[in-house]
Design goal:
211 residues; alpha+beta; Butyryl-CoA Dehydrogenase, subunit A, domain 3; 5-stranded antiparallel β-sheet; disordered C terminus; transmembrane; structural molecule activity; membrane; PMP22/EMP/MP20/Claudin; transmembrane helix
Length: 211
C-alpha cells in the first residue's frame, strides 16, 4: 500500500468520525427564521434531542424531546437513528484501518467509510428537506425554520468519510499494480526440446533401417 495515501485515508476517516460526534450534540440543526417578522423577541432552535428558545436578554430554556418511540412522524426520529448508526460504522471502520492497514481487509474499511458517509448524508439531507419543505409552504401554520450549523457540519463529515473511502481504494489499487509478476520456473526434471525429440526420432528410424 502507498503509505501516504493510507495515512491520508486514515486522517480523513478520523476527521469525518470526529465531525459526526460534533454534529450530533450541536443544538443548531435548525433555527427560527426572521423572514417576514418585524419584531423578534425570541429565537427558537432545535437539534435531534431537544428544542430551545432564547429571548432578548440571553436567557436560554431547553426542553428535551420525548422518548424515541414517541417521536412518530418527526424527522428527528429517523435522523437520530441514522446518526447513531453513522458513529458506530465510523468506529468500526477506524478500528479496522488501524488494526489491519492491508489490502486484504481494504474492502471492509472502504465499505464502513462509505456506509458511514451514506448514513450521515441521508440523515442530514432528510432533516434539511423537511425544513425547506415547511419554509416554502405558504399554508404551514407552525414556526418556520432555517438550516442551522449542525447540518453543515454533518455534510462536511459525510464528505470527509467518502473521501477517506476513495483514498483507501486507490491505496489498494496502487499496491496491486506494483506487485511484480513471478516468472515461470519449470520443475527440475528433464526438459525435452524440439531438437531433442527430432534427434531421438531420427535415431529410431536409423535403427529400423538395419532390420
Amino acid at each position: 500500500m502507498d503509505p501516504i495515501i493510507e495515512v491520508l485515508a486514515l486522517l480523513l476517516g478520523f476527521l469525518g468520525w470526529v465531525m459526526v460526534g460534533i454534529a450530533i450534540p450541536n443544538r443548531y440543526w435548525k433555527t427560527s427564521t426572521v423572514d417576514g417578522n418585524v419584531i423578534t423577541t425570541s429565537t427558537i432552535y432545535e437539534n435531534l434531542w431537544m428544542s430551545c428558545a432564547s429571548d432578548s436578554t440571553g436567557v436560554h430554556n431547553c426542553r428535551e424531546f420525548p422518548s424515541l418511540l414517541a417521536l412518530s412522524g418527526r424527522p428527528s426520529k429517523r435522523s437520530r437513528l441514522l446518526m447513531i448508526a453513522s458513529v458506530v460504522l465510523g468506529t468500526i471502520g477506524l478500528a479496522a484501518t488501524l488494526i489491519g492497514m492491508q489490502c486484504n481487509i481494504i474492502f471492509w474499511d472502504e465499505q464502513m467509510n462509505v456506509m458511514q458517509s451514506l448514513c450521515t448524508m441521508i440523515s442530514v439531507s432528510w432533516y434539511a428537506f423537511n425544513i425547506t419543505q415547511e419554509f416554502f409552504n405558504p399554508l404551514f401554520p407552525g414556526t418556520k425554520y432555517e438550516l442551522g450549523e449542525g447540518l453543515y457540519i454533518g455534510w462536511c463529515s459525510g464528505t470527509l468519510a467518502i473521501c477517506g473511502g476513495v483514498c483507501l481504494v486507490f491505496a489498494c489499487k496502487s499496491d496491486t499494480d506494483e506487485k511484480p509478476a513471478y516468472p515461470y520456473q519449470p520443475s527440475r526434471g528433464t526438459v525435452y526440446s524440439a531438437a531433442t525429440s527430432r534427434r531421438d526420432a531420427h535415431s529410431t528410424y536409423d535403427k529400423n533401417a538395419y532390420v
